[in-house]
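[Meeting: bench + compute handoff]

Bench side (C.D.) handed over the final construct sequence. Compute side (W.E.) agreed to return the predicted structure before the next meeting so the bench team could plan truncations. Sequence as handed over:
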Amino acid sequence: MKPNLQRPAPRIAVPEPELTPKEMIARAVALRARLRAEQDEADERGCYSPSLHEEFVKAGFYRCSQPRLFGGYEFDLATFYKVMTEISAGHPGSGWCLALGASHAFEIASHWPEPAQRDFFARDGHFIAPHRAPPMGTLTPAPGGYFVEGTWDYCSGVPYATHLIGGAWLKRENAAPVVAHAVVPRKDFTILDDWGGDKVMGMKASGSNSVRVEKVFIPEYHVGYLSPGLASTPESMADGTHGTRLHGNPMYLGRLAGPFHATLIVPVLGAARAALDEYEELIRTRKTLSMPQMPRFEHFDYQRSWGQALTLTDAAEALMIKGCEMYADYCARWAADGTPISVQENMRLWGMLQHSGRMACEAVELLFHTAGSALARKGQKLQRYFHDVAMYRGHSSSQPLNFASGLARNHFGMAWGMYGL
């Protein structure tokens, strides 16, 4: 059955109603030089500066995929990730911080009921939130809601957040515990000083601080159950989601796991673009050590490395954009005839995007390995980019071989164990 989709009129004014995706992407490109100039300070601070944050607010980056009903631009995911890639080309750590803080307006718009969305987007539509999905807290039932408490690590994007979304164990009497996701306002959590500087190897400006919540009450409708949103059986979205019914846009099916891996890819894509620029500057300005000496860009060893890294980066970016387009196609199919996005489609999309991240990492690693040891010193941009992609390499959702066996198990009808499968 074809879903009945109707677009509502905005309840919160969109700051720039005529803003286009092309213009928003251009604004991100225009900030590249400033982001690169401020890399050292941002790494030491653990996130980008308050003044850059204000530039991001003014540019509309936080509202990119936010629904127009609540003051957002409602651009598609491809636009969102193109913007984040351009920011990451200026500074991968800052791109990680921005992307992980800005991406979850889409999640909230997809899976929380209208009263909760009215609360979260409030009067002006300004919303920023990290989401730490593993259950690191607890939800205790109370009249009208729950008491939430816990400590969540790696809350990327939290320094300028208005809210936290944290996974937690919800235990009801005479029932097995389930994983739920609590949305906590900024006034009710504490950001711990455990990120930035020399506390971590890479992505130092990603704002991935831990967050502590000490027994705070939240209303029942501020809690979401995202297993269906991440990787449920297809039937769970046959009738759409809170977001499709409220916003009239099929992109708010919010099948998260597949397309959301792009949030982790754009910082390493940006690192690859930045590393190519740094390497080109190196080979244009330095000569070979071997005789006869010549500018490095004229020697086939350096030409080969730069050319290979360039094509790896181009392929990685094309694959990331293709993943966004595939998600849009799945949503359009649902809008046309009600066919949900299947678990297998969602997981294959995730796995495909992992290879985009892998290729971008390989590009940076190739350039670092062939640039010479002088570029390994602290403060060198190429060293920074190498360390940044190493952080992606170690992320639990960026392990293609581990993921592949689970994908095959799902295909052959066996339990996987990820997100309730």
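W.E. noted at the follow-up: The two ends are 26 Å apart (CA to CA). C.D. will use this when planning the next construct.
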